[in-house]
Amino acid sequence: MTQYSSTITKEELALLPIEEYKGRVIVIDQMKDANRAVEFLSQQLRVGFDTETRPSFKKGQRYKIALMQVATDDVCFLFRLNKTGFPNSLEAFLCNKAILKIGLSLRDDFGAIKKRTNIEPANFLDLQNYVGRFGITDASLQKIYAIMFGKKISKGQRLTNWEAPNLTELQQKYAALDAWACLRIYNQLNKE
Hints:
This protein has one domain (about 10-185): 2-Layer Sandwich (Nucleotidyltransferase, domain 5). The chain is built from eight helices and six strands. The chain has helices at about 10-15, 30-40, 80-85, 90-95, 105-115, 125-130, 140-150, 170-190, and strands at about 25-30, 45-55, 65-70, 75-80, 100-105, 125. The N and C termini lie close together (about 5 Å). About 35% of the residues are buried. The model has no long low-confidence stretch (mean pLDDT about 90).
C-alpha cells in the first residue's frame, strides 16, 4: 500500500500548478434531463459526489442546496436543484446501495440534503475518514489532491452565486472538478 506525505504546507501548495477539469460537463436544469442522467449514472460502480449552496453573507440567512455534482471518470452532471427541485430519480440514486458515492466532508452535504428531502443516503464514503489509512492527515480536498497529484484545486469560485440564472463556465468547471477529484483520489488509493 502506497504511503503518502501526511501533510502539505500552504507555501508548498501555493507553488503547485492548478488542476483543470477536462471532462464533459452536463448541466441538468430540467426534470426530463435529470432522469436520463440518473439512468446513465445508475450503470456506474462508483461516482464522485459534491454539492454547492449559495453563500450567505447575512446573519441568519440560509439557502438550500442549489447544485449537486455527480462525476464519473470522464463526465460530470451538475444537477441544478434550485431549478428542478429534487427529482425522485435522483433521490433513488442517492439511496442505491449498489453504487459507491465518494465525497468529502459528507456530514455537511447530508445536512443540506435533509433540508430538501427526507431520504437516507446509502453507500457513501467520506474521503476525510478514508485517506488516513494511506498516511494522509490533511482533511481538505485541496490538500489531499495536492499531496497525491502535485496539483492544486483553485477555490476561487466557491463563494459565487450557485442560484444564478446561468452558471458561468468557471463555475461549471469548479463544481465538476470537486466531484471528479473525489473519485480520482479514491481510484488512485485503490490501484494497488
